[in-house]
Amino acid sequence: MSLTEAETATAVRPAARRPGAPVARSRLARRRRRAGILLSLPAVALVIALLGVPVGQAVYYSMTQWNGLVTTWIGPSTYVSLVKDPIFWRVLENNGLLLLAVPFAIGIPLAIAALLHEHVRGWRFFRSAYFLPTAISWVVIGMFALRFFSATGVLNGLLGRVGFGPSATDMLANEHTALAALAITFIWSMVGTNTIIFLTGMATLDPTLTEAARVDGLSRRQIFFRVTLPLLTRFIQFSFVITVISAFSALFSLIFVMTSGGPGFGTTTLEFFIYQAGFQQVQLGTAALYGVVLFVIMAIAGLVQLRLIKPDDGGGW
Amino acid sequence: MATIPAPQYQPGGTTPRNPPSASSRVRRTMHRWVLFILMVVVAVVMLYPFWYIIDNAFRSAGQFDRQSGHSLSGWNQLFANLPVASELLNSTLVCVAAIAIILVVSTTAGFAFAKLRYRGSGMVFLLVVSALMVPLQSILFPEFVNLSNVSLTSSYAGAVLVYAALGTPFATFLMATYYRGISDELIEAAVMDGLGYERTFLQIAIPLSLPAIATITVLQFIQIWDDLLVGLFFLPTNQRTITAGLATLSTGRTTSVPALMAGSLISAIPAIVVYLIFQRHLIKGLTLGMGK
To answer: What is the pTM of this model?
Structure first.
């Protein structure tokens, strides 16, 4: 990025670049600064007003009792009571269990990407087909999943045909199986995005490397695990972060349509409990408290992600 | 050079540099077929829900239970219970307005952060991009109270602003990355020619960045069209988007499955059409910064 450095240098010491016209250059630099501030202002204002300020408010309200109109200050002790609250741990446990889906949500797309990367006839069509679910909403996915997992649904129909007929159960009616159903739906939904990430990664690999490995007598499997996979590390990390962020903050619609958080607390995750505490119980302070916890988790994941995408790479254009 | 065929090696074979024998050719063909069949299996798993939705949208409740016969009664029930046309219009208006705001603020800010650096602009850029980490759920109620205090939740305005704010960090990051790829000399030359920074931005930078603008538009369209949370909270009931309308219809439990499938189908079609046309741009945006 030597260009950018040169440019910064010009902005700071304009006279140093062209001794011939120092006055004109510095006037230009001033205009450039003014234009820069002016043009970046709308984005900054929008983000601060609608995202930054509410985060501050959420931190404040997390230490209060708040019903939307009346606010009673309690103080940081709300965080102590939170840690002692079994419901908090129950909800967090659901988030933790959902993380068990992450290896599948990465491993399956990795295998699919490897399959597509063989470039067998028709692979472009299949790539489009696998990516298609990315276009539809979690609401529509949830609508289908609800019918897929229900007692009279597609899954039990399939199982019945293979000979598990009498044991047909409604997966969504039991706490543990409901979370499993949610996790399976989540894994299916992530296939498109993660496959595309890995396919992009494989396209950047130097084909002579795998060719060399083949000459050395490595089998296809050995080439995949010893050559391809290590070179994809950055892409796997990237999809890992995206998958974790999705598991924590993109499943609201799916839960809303499929289970409404139930049965019991079976599928109530952090993000869904915020909605329940605020919307159904009108305990907006509690909702803010859970919101802050969710935000901290997302911020950690986001920091990892920012390191991975390296803004100075210049992008893949 | 291209006319010389690359030497063929037997996969895992003990003696490389052998010409391809008949058995190895058979093995290769077999291998290709196995891969093809695997791809078909995955395609069935990924596309089955689409088939299920289409198939069951054209049934009555009774036909759904029996899983035989087709009719339009699901559609009749859908249109009787959900103002489909006006909700499609709401979705369109909200999408267009929010995307317009996102494009304006992200192209200007992206250009400023890439080409018009000022003291501290790097920090400001980081501030805007770090807003990516804020999940709406975390700030749901403060946001709602703020917006209703300035009475923006009784019309499209509140939802449009929230969508715009949520989309801006990534869009700004994408635009800044794109503008960094444009040479400084080009911008300098335009400014020296007397265009000034504002007109250089409008007449030089914007036309050069149309691919990135397309990527943002497609990404945001699908994101906003498919969103439930904002539509549910920040829009008055009579101005709901199709996705929010459909989700609330489904919680009613009285609506028949075929009607819900019909609603799913009609709500999914616009996003699918956009996806099919602009697939390339969508993929670019998704993997930005990851490719070489």
So the answer is: 0.86
